[in-house]
Amino acid sequence: MITLSIIKTIHNWLFSVLPERIASITEMVLIAVFYLALFAVIGLYLVLLERRVAAWFQLRRGPNRVGPWGIFQTIADALKLVTKELVGTKRADKFLYNLAPYFVIVTALVSMSVLPFSEQVQAFDINIGVFFLLAVSSIGVIGILLGGWSSNNKYSLIGAMRSGIQTISYELSVGLSLLTMVLLTGTLQLSEIIANQQANGWLIIQGHIPAFIAFSIFMIAGTAETNRAPFDLVEAESELGAGFHTEYSGMKFAYFFLAEFINMFIISSIAVTVFFGGWLSPFGITEGIIWMQPIWFCIKLVAIIFLMMWFRWTFPRLRVDQLLKLEWKYLLPLNLMNIVLMAILIWLGFTI
Amino acid sequence: MKENYKTSNLMTNEELQNKITTFNANLEFTEEASQFLNITVPKEDLINLCNQLKKEGFDYLFCMTGIDYGEELGVIYHLESTTDRKQLVVKTQTMDRESPILDSVVSIWKTAELNEMEIFDFFGIKFNNHPNLKRLFLTPDWRGFPLRKDYIDEDNMVIK
Amino acid sequence: MTEQIVNNSFKSQEYFVNMGPQHPATHGVLRLILTIDGEIIKNIEPDLGYIHRSIEKMCERDSYQQIVHLTDRMDYLSSHINNEAVCLTVENALGLEVPDRVKVIRTIISELTRIASHCLWWGVMGMDVGALTTYFLAFRDREMINDIFEETCGARLTMNYNIPGGLMFDIHPNFVQRTKEFLTHFRKKLPEYDRLLTNNVIFQKRTKGVGFLSKQDAISYGVSGPVARGSGYSSDVRKIHPYSAYNSVDFNEILFTEGDTLSRYKVRIAEMWESMKIIDQLIDNIPEGDIKVTTKAVIKLPKGEFYQKVETARGELGVYINSTGTKNPYRVKFRSPSLSNLNALKQMAVGGKIGDLVATMASLDIVVPDIDR
């Protein structure tokens, strides 16, 4: 009640004070600034969470000196990165070299704008929500390839090529597994998907077997999309160099680094929205309490992010040809069969 | 000294010596001052002897040492047979200290490849037919051969 | 050196890449010059000498007791076994018979060193393949062994506990009890290692059929240790030419015939179980007695050549001493197991991919100071 009516009050105040055009633009700017701040804060705290979860798996403590439970650790790291010297290569293509990090950030921000954090907090609720998300995440590949190419470094280029092909391959699986769930709801709009789940129960329960298969494929393909282990061949330290971001330092490196964590956040949010009911509470416990909705969203989000971190610290890495074989020979056929299965189940009325 | 080592009972040193003399009568055999049967061979016959020994079953070259006797430069090969665990030593040497050349045994035992590079690096002995003979541990522009007894290096050597 | 490689016959699509000398996967300062075509490796050339300290030349001016201290730094993960090799050579040359107590203690500490070295190898192998948690788990167990050594020998890595003639001082009163505690602890932890890494499908796909070395090639390349036993060549010096107390213990030699990275991995894991078996048989019955045989202060070996082989965690270490009867040796040569194993790398990794090279090098378990000496 408290938090969300602030939005209404600000909206009304703006429109009463300023003429209409300028008020809309100001409102858009404010929302953009809010999302930028959210982007920064989420990025910082996900890094800290990763470090503490990794330490927990490795039987040690993580950072706990800088602030209670190490809360200010990433801020200290970010300040350090800001003050670093920007060492670029001499013959790098200056324009593309500087442009590449912005592609990945803009992609991440645009994806974040369509996610429903609660019933009323959603910046951009278009009727092609899921399709929009998939389309925008494909643009991120350009940033990686540009970064590798413009560094004028053959190892960066090899790393960028590998990463590019990995991302392009796994986008297919991500798209198809989301498509399986869209069959159940009949709509691509994210808020409608959640409304459907409010009426009939979470989609993963509605679709039982094919939905569970779709969720597994989505998790595998999502982890591969974000170049995280076990698919992190691109940035593996034991292989050659550091991949496409070898020649970046300082703030530009920080952009690539943060973008990886934000991508993880986006994949998890999509999983939570489409499979697990978004901001809905399980069994409708706190149905009417509006400020619990973002909190439920966060709880489910943290669970899925923890799952992705668990993958990273347990499994060894796949080799690049095994990675591609997995996608094209195993996941894609499985996905297609799953869609047919889901269609048959809906037609026969066996969904819950 | 010899009682501490378990040697095979299948062929004693005398039988081995007799067998090898049938290949080549030009060899010196000795067992004193060592726990193995030592064969000293002139450098021209080295490859023949090694081929025959490999056919005899000595297929494991477990140590290859370069040594500077003071006047001659030599190489010592320690061989073992993997079937009956018999061990044997082959020695060869050359009087030429300016440009010593021996035959390479890489075609017989592949382990000699890095070992011969090491001996070239430290003693200067060149090996014919080696696939890639160059210095192994020292930098390519190093002058001199450190493990020779007459090597002098005031900067790096600490002599007590 | 790179100019020479570039000028050699070079197809247009190939390029060369430096791996090392600072590289997380080369286990030390090893530089490999790879010629790669796409993702396939066409040629490997090692460039050694970054940690060459001329140990063999130094041995020619040092006395026999001083040589022992130089051998710690060669293969620092089996430093006790290196010391034991030199001491055994000198003792056999002089015809000294060390007391049984010394033999048993030397064997127990050798086997503990072997377990510590294989623990570290396991952690690093997991890390190279991508499972980063294995490193921390392995070091947790290795710390227990290091603590046992620190109490008895005074040092955690370079132990200097052996002298020609016996041991420097007696074992600490807590040694037996702490070793037994370690054995009970580690017996529960070793199956955890299997659950985490060995049975993982991704790990098996990375290591099965990768880096094949046939038995004939293993013998020809002079390969020894777990690498040879993974290819089916029975090369355990503890069985073939036993020394110290290995005559009186009962253990198996582990042989696998597949010759790929996974079989070398399994050999080392099984060797850890065998080492625990050996320690179990000896730890309760350490005979009483002296801990050293007195030698003269200035040791002079008789004129002649002496050779001793021991089985370190990497393979067969050989010590060759050529003496002319004076107080310094005339020539000392250390036959390093890692040098021969590295020689076989070209055979194993050419034709495979870069990821396979990393896994194969991890399974070879080379320690570069052992190569460079």
Rg value of chain B: 17 Å
Unreliable residue stretches of chain C: none
List the strand order in the largest sheet of chain B: 1-2-5-4-3
CATH architecture of the largest domain in chain C: Orthogonal Bundle
- Number of spatially distinct domains of chain C: 2
The CATH topology of the largest domain in chain C, please? Answer: Cytochrome-c3 Hydrogenase, chain B
CATH class of the largest domain in chain C: Mainly Alpha
What's the arrangement of strands in the largest beta sheet of chain C? 1-2-3
Largest sheet of chain B: 5 strands, mixed
**Alpha-beta content class of chain B:** alpha/beta
Task: Give the distance, in angstroms, between the N- and C-terminal Cα atoms of chain C.
Answer: 22 Å
CA-based shape of chain B: globular
Helical residue percent band of chain C? 40-55%
Uncertain parts of chain B: 1-10
Helix content, binned percent of chain B: 10-25%
> Which assembly state applies to the chains in this document?
heterotrimer
State the separation between the terminal residues of chain B, measured CA to CA: 32 Å
Largest sheet of chain C: 3 strands, antiparallel
Percent strand of chain C: 5-15%
Mean pLDDT of chain C: 86
Alpha carbon gyration radius of chain C: 21 Å
Could you explain the architecture of this structure?
The complex is a heterotrimer of chains A (about 350), B (about 160) and C (about 375). Chain A is an all-alpha fold. Chain A has 12 helices and no strands. Chain A has 2 domains: about 1-85, no CATH class; about 90-350, no CATH class. In chain A, α1 (about 1-15) runs antiparallel to α2 (about 20-55), α5 packs antiparallel against α6 and α6 packs parallel to α12. Chain B has 3 helices and 7 strands, in the order αββαββββαβ. In chain B, the strands form 2 sheets. Chain B has a 5-stranded mixed beta sheet with strand order 1-2-5-4-3. Chain B has a two-stranded parallel sheet with strand order 6-7. Chain C folds into 2 domains: about 1-50, no CATH class; about 50-370, Cytochrome-c3 Hydrogenase, chain B (Orthogonal Bundle). Chain C contains 16 helices and 8 strands. Chain C has helices at about 1-5, 55-60, 65-70, 80-95, 100-130, 135-155, 175-200, 200-205, 215-220, 225-230, 235-240, 260-285, 335-345, 345-350, 355-365, 370, and strands spanning about 15-20, 30-35, 40-45, 160-165, 165, 305-310, 315-325, 330-335. In chain C, the strands form 3 sheets. Chain C has a 3-stranded antiparallel beta sheet with strand order 1-2-3. In chain C, β2 (about 30-35) and β3 (about 40-45) form a beta hairpin. In chain C, α4 (about 80-95) runs antiparallel to α5. The longest helix of chain C has 30 residues, at about 100-130. Chain C is globular and about 65 Å long. The model of chain C has no long low-confidence stretch (mean pLDDT about 85). The interface of B and C includes residues 4, 6, 33, 82 and 157 of B.
